[in-house]
Amino acid sequence: MSKEASIKRAAGVGATQADAPGAGSTKLKRAIRQTLMALISLGSVLLLWHLSVGTLFNSALVPTPAATFSKAWGMMMTGELFMHIGVSLRRVLVGYVAGCVGGIMLGAVIGRFWLARELADPVLEVIRPISPVAIVPLAMLWFGIGEVSKYFIIIYATLIIVLLNTAAGVSRTPVTRVRAARCLGANEYDVFLKVVLPSAVPYVLTGMRVALGFSFMGIVAAELIGAREGLGFLIMNSQLLLQTEQLFVGLLSLGVVGAIIDRVFRIVLDRYTRSYIQFQREV
Amino acid sequence: MQTDVQPASAPSTPWQSLSLDHVRKVFRDSRGGDYAAVRDISISIRRGDFYCLLGPSGCGKSTLLNLIAGFEPVTEGGIAFAGETGGQPWRKPIGGAGVDRSMIFQDAGEALFPWLNVEENVVFGPRLHGASGQPLLANLDRYLRMVGLKEHAHKFPFELSGGMKQRVQIARALIMEPDILLMDEPFAALDAITKRLLQQELARIWQETGKTIVYVTHDIIEALLLGTRVAVMTAGPAATIKQEIEVRLAQPRSSTSTDFVELTKLLEATLHEEVHKARAAQAQAA
Questions:
Q1: What integer pLDDT is reported at residue B134 of this predicted model?
Q2: Angle between helices A244-272 and A65-78 (to 10 degrees)
Q3: Is the pLDDT of residue A191 over 90?
Q4: Chain B contacts of A3, Cβ < 8 Å?
């Protein structure tokens, strides 16, 4: 059977499931319910926020939601907000991709060869607790306040986690699976590329998701200390200028962007690695 | 010591038996002590046999199967294919793991490739060897039909029941056309009905393909339902073959026929003796 036919078949199966009586409406109901809940929860927080300003909190320190959103709107109109978000995202993206590639490659080697593993383990044990935030001053010292120091911090945040997870996944490939491949005529090279690495994918993906969160922490820390643009800079600069509305805009943007990125990550995973994800739930 | 040395000229006629000569396997435990799993195993598995290795748990049946598969080297003795060409007997020692001996494992969840669907799992081996196109598809179709998975070709392992996963393993092994199929308690984790069904199908597949099968089990009834020969192992450690019987019953077999019941009693007596001995040894050690 051709690849195309198998894809069609897969699509066919998907369609039948969606067409099953009740399946569609249940899904819709759940989506409606979830949206409603999100609106209620976010709405009540906004309401509490609004009521607390001027009563519980000094309005010079906590702007009202209305003031915050109007500030955000203004910054969107001038493009300033998008510029800061874009700069931060670009830094995260470049560093994250580089860190993932490096982490997967190093992790694969470390997981595969016991000598490399035993030599690397003590070093990794010591490096692991050093958070990306703690690395910021060192990065500034080495690379100045330019882009390189930002990439360095993100790469550091991503690489360690992805490396550790990849190594764990590679070294935990079931012996049975490797033996099965041997019986099918796989040589060392086949076993590693076609059995061991795919077996590690769920571990790698878990590492990548955690690393994404770490990257955001790292970039904000870096931009707080030394940057002329980016969300961290926006937040820090607002504090220095006593621009509380702008500070709140920065924080909210960080939350919204982070949540969207994580959601996108999950959707992409679900779409392209369905069988892996299921297998991950079993692991 | 088992060697990987091949005879200078490859034998031109097929092998007649797989012979194990005084096979001994010693493992080194974590404290540096030696632990003999099996000793002095000398058996000859004929081409076309359905050879059952029957024994109490922990007696080294799986170890023996792993040695035949070539996953582990023997400590002493040898395992070789034996045959005769023009009146000249020859022996060809088995090497490491290879496509001539295909193993079917009890834990299919670990043995299958979870990221590949049924079809992709089955063609994994042939594709490694460059098979493609119409001949591969025809082969795939043949073996999927043989194990009854034609309708499930595009499902992933997580969508399959335990019995279906074992069918995938069987198809995946058969498509390599191995000389010997090694099965390590493949149906032990299945429910009774599925188990019985798969036993019947395995008996049919064995007849259909004429494969040599070495089958490890601790279930007397299963051994007698399937095997042409049943070797009973002594309780471990340092287990060996206690008794070997021929089962001259036609397939399909019924576990209620007189002959079957007689053989069951015979094996039960032998096996119980071993279980007793193992318990006594444990009590003494404690």
A1: 87
A2: 70
A3: yes
A4: none
Ramachandran quadrant class, A74 (left: phi over 0; alpha: psi -120 to 50; beta: rest) = alpha
Helices (H), chain A: 3-19, 23-52, 65-78, 80-112, 114-127, 132-143, 147-171, 175-183, 188-190, 197-225, 231-240, 244-272, 274-282
CA angle B175, A182, B147 (to 5 degrees): 25
Dist. CA B158–CA B177, nearest whole Å? 26
User: Region B180-194: what's the mean pLDDT?
Assistant: 91
Whether this model's ipTM surpasses 0.85 comes out as yes
Q: Which residues are CB-contacts of A149 (< 8 A; sequence separation ≥ 6)?
A: A139, A140, A142, A143, A222, A226
Give the best residue of B67, B113, B180, B181 to mutate against chain A (max A CB count within 10 A): B113
Distance (Å) of CA B31 to CA A2, B24, B73, B262: 55, 21, 21, 46
Residues of A with CB under 8 A from a CB of B: 1, 6, 9-10, 13, 174, 176-177, 179-186, 190, 194-195, 198, 201, 275-276, 278-279, 282
Please state the pTM of the whole predicted model. Answer: 0.80
Set of chain B residues whose Cβ sits within 8 Å of the Cβ of A276: 114-115
Q: What is the 3-state secondary structure (H, E, C) of B106-163?
A: CCHHHHCCCCCCHHHHHHHHHHHCCCCHHHHHHHHHHHHHHCCCHHHCCCCHHHCCHH
Q: Is pLDDT at A121 greater than 70 in this prediction?
A: yes
Q: Which helix or strand (DSSP H or E) is residue B213 part of?
A: strand B212-217
Nearest-5° Cα angle at A150, A144 to A156: 115
Burial B148-166 (b: 16+ CB within 10 A, else e): ebeebbbbbbbebebbbbb
